[in-house]
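Handout, section 3.2

Students often ask what a structure token actually looks like in practice. Rather than define it abstractly, here is a full record for Saccharopine dehydrogenase NADP binding domain-containing protein. The first block is the sequence as you would receive it.
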Amino acid sequence: MSLSRKYDIVIWGASSFTGARLVEYLALNAPTDARIAIGGRNKTKLAEVQSRLAAKHVSAADALKAMDILVGDSTDAACMHEIALQTRVVASTVGPYTRFGTELVRACVEAKTDYCDITGEMPWVREMHCELNDLAVENNVHVASFCGFDCIPADLGCMMLAQYAHEELHEPLLHVKGSIVGIRGGVSGGTLATLRDQLHTEKKMIFKSLFSSSGSTEGSANKRFATRGLIHFDKTLQRWQTFWIMSMINSQTANWAGQVLNYGPGFEYSESMSARSLLHAVAIAVGLFYGVLLMFFSVTRHALYALKIIPRPGEGPSEKFTERGFFSLNLEASTENHVFYGKVAGSSDPGYGETIKYLGESALCLAFDRDETFRPGVYPPSVVMGSALLRRLRNKGCQFEVSRKPIAALESTKKWL
């Protein structure tokens, strides 16, 4: 990748709800000499984001005004190639990626430009991996998807535990059990639009997950965590556990990384959500089931839009609400002879405050930290950036902790979504 390119980072989709937050984050956190441009399909909206943020952050106004505006159509292959040739890294917030991400990823791989995004669309990422991984390796290009709340906590959390198992216990990591023990956050219309597309492409897997156990019963490397039902009692946390909507994508991503990075034979990650009581656990599972049904059908989905129960694309939680958000993910890991623990936590809305931090630091990591330890190809962030990204996030206040003793769950029950 040429160091003489015009930009270090291009933020693609900068006029979207999430994209504007990323522009703001990089204006406040990128090195002063970083060359950043913002891009999307509507020049007027991009200029409005730029001027609004410059008025809000006077100290960063010069940096914001210095960001060039690039205009293009995400479905136009020639246009995406022209944009990719101008930058060292692209950070994309334009979803659903199945519809609007393919040409940009292809262009980046062909132009030898690194890339990161916040998709949670595993079928699309697998498709990009199958189509482009060999060329990405040949061109020494790093394509890191899943750089948001799905799936940084699970992905880097498992990598952290695998490193501990190998370096301190001298044993392979066999299993990690994750539990969301506390969370508060909002959702944007763009995220719901992506979820809608995923419901159509992954409906069989989603409904199977709602009614299946959270641990495998055959071929498991560690029977300690096998045969856990959808709703079960966790003896370590002393809490009832229930279905967690993001467990599907998080487990697939962590397991994929575990295979590539060789955490251990038959490594498996599973994930659930803590509840205050058995009744609460049942209520969460039933609520998610009906929520999925309502989002699946266009008639009920449009009714939810009309009643303003859910936000439309381009809408999302307020800045104040984002700042009041948080999440806490407790991890229980096992090797052949040891059980140990981990925790990943964030102090803002996981879907926006933490996700923007994760994506922003991923873009900066690709632009300024890249060395021989980075792995080229189309992979999860732990595979592409590894410990370099983990260090960056820890330096920004993200909690990634390992302990030989159980880590207590949140005591307060009022801090629930």
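Discussion prompt for tutorial groups: The CA atoms of residues 90 and 115 lie 5 Å apart. How would you have guessed this from the sequence alone?
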